[in-house]
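Supplementary Data S3. Sequence and structure tokens for construct A.
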Amino acid sequence: MTAALIDGNLISKKLRGEIRERAAKIPSAKGKPPGLAVILVGGNPASQVYVSSKVKACGEVGFHSVLERYPASLSEADLLKQIDTLNNDPTINGILVQLPLPDHIDSKKVLEAIAPEKDVDGFHISNAGALMVGSPEFIPCTPYGCIKMLESIQYPLKGAQAVVVGASNIVGKPMAMLLLMAGATITVCNSKTRNLSRYTKDADIVVVATGRPKMVTGDMIKPGAVVIDVGINRLPDGKLCGDVDFESVKQVASHITPVPGGVGPMTITMLLMNTLEAAER
């Protein structure tokens, strides 16, 4: 078989249309559109691309957006002070600090400084804890997007065997929690798991988020499985690829996400959704 593509661009377009319609109703009720503040510290090239994409997406759905750029020399104290200012700004519903931060700044301290009701990345410990007990306020954007992609193919999650490869706080752990909430049986692996294929071969759903190019290959996948590739890596020849070997896996899986054009667009779309929900609340 050749796997059907789960097109992140197509799903995002539909969701952004819904977000735009809901956002348009907010000014008449509250006097302002949803507002997102994005903070970028330093000149990381990838981070600059990401924040530009987020600000552009805000404009497309009628949001108010603020992009604050600071040099890498910005002190931790000054960054925390600016976050406090945004916490108290009524025109801002969501605050996002682009990671990674310079080494002299404690990322954990910065993320905890964001007011939980404006933590549209879903990284604050109170939001992570709410997800753990099954009552999330904000779901981390990438796992949220993955769930929406599974919903788009109407995959029956209840009772499914799911393997999440990667255990980060940003993707792997919240992804496992969301699948668990949906009724799936979860195994969480990582890049150091011994005999990884022993687990992935039994899975109906495989979500891979390790940052290792093409580490999951076709011989590691059960025929007919759904494969969600969260990774994005640049090869020496400049081409982009995921953590899944797309060419071999697509011959085995029933559905697969491409890289690029899969999970990436969904991450930004779910950031918009979280910001919208913050404004509506």
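Construct B, processed identically:
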Amino acid sequence: MKKILLLFSIMFLASNASAQESMLSNCNKNYQINADNLYMLTLSALNSQGQFEVVEMQSKSGYIMFEATNKKQYIATISKEGTTSSSIKILPANSDFSQGTGVQKTIFDIIDLNIKNTPQKVL
């Protein structure tokens, strides 16, 4: 009986870990623009919606801490991937993924829309 209980416990923990890994992959996105422009587009996305408030930002290290309307804090980190590409990672500040990845999807959609509507020579 103990072996069966142990087996079910391991299966439950493994399924929970894969769900968190899936959520974590939804928190990252790569863009074909430089890191400085992605940082500015992220700030623009946060300020364009009334549902986000920037708490702290540091352009040199490429992070922005912000708060959503649900009072949850998130950290957006922009990193350089190459000369013309960069990535953004948006994670909950307390590592609690129970709220899902709706905040990340909203910000990524706004950034995508801004890139689409911006002339390429500006970027």
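Residues 2-116 form a domain with the TATA-Binding Protein fold (CATH 3.30.310.80). The CA atoms of residues 4 and 48 lie 53 Å apart.
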